[in-house]
Write a structure and sequence with these properties.
Blueprint: E1 2-7, H1 13-27, E2 31-36, E3 50-56, H2 64-72, E4 81-88, H3 95-103, E5 109-110, E6 115-118, H4 130-141
Parallel strand pairs: 1-2, 1-3, 3-4, 4-5, 4-6
Helix pairs in contact: 1-4
């Protein structure tokens, strides 16, 4: 399976999660490509069987750069699948719902309700046990 992970990470917590998830997915025999939204244009995403979008949260919402990226996203495969993840200080964040709303007009199909990984301070660290949560998430979406 070809998996494309697109992420934004301000303090490195999201990138740490993405790297762990990439490692898990690769070990299961999948081809994984990872890019920051700062490195790739929304019109030039590689073809994939599954897209994973990861974002930090700012006041309960994805940052403007991520929202803008998702609004301009061009996915050519009909019925493309996606999953979402967010790093957050509060599990009540609406980031995943906001991202889902931005992806639905593209006709993409969600494969999971997503995952939220708690950051224990503005700059981290990540919650204890985040690796196990990501392991379970990978199993769910693959």
């Amino acid at each position: 399976m070809k998996v494309c992970i697109i992420y934004e990470s301000k303090y490195g917590n999201g990138k740490k999660c993405v790297e762990h998830l990439q490692n898990i997915i690769s070990k299961k025999g999948n081809d994984v490509e990872t890019s920051s939204i700062r490195e790739i244009k929304p019109s030039s995403l590689p073809r994939a069987d599954l897209y994973i979008f990861s974002t930090p949260t700012h006041m309960g919402s994805p940052p403007g750069k991520m929202k803008k990226f998702l609004k301009k996203l061009e996915i050519t495969e009909e019925g493309a699948k996606y999953a979402l993840m967010a790093t957050c200080m509060d599990y009540k964040t609406k980031a995943l719902q906001i991202m889902e709303g931005l992806l639905q007009p593209n006709g993409m199909n969600k494969v999971s309700d997503g995952i939220k990984i708690k950051v224990t301070g503005i700059k981290g660290p990540l919650e204890t046990g985040y690796e196990e949560k990501l392991d379970a998430f990978a199993k769910e979406i693959l």
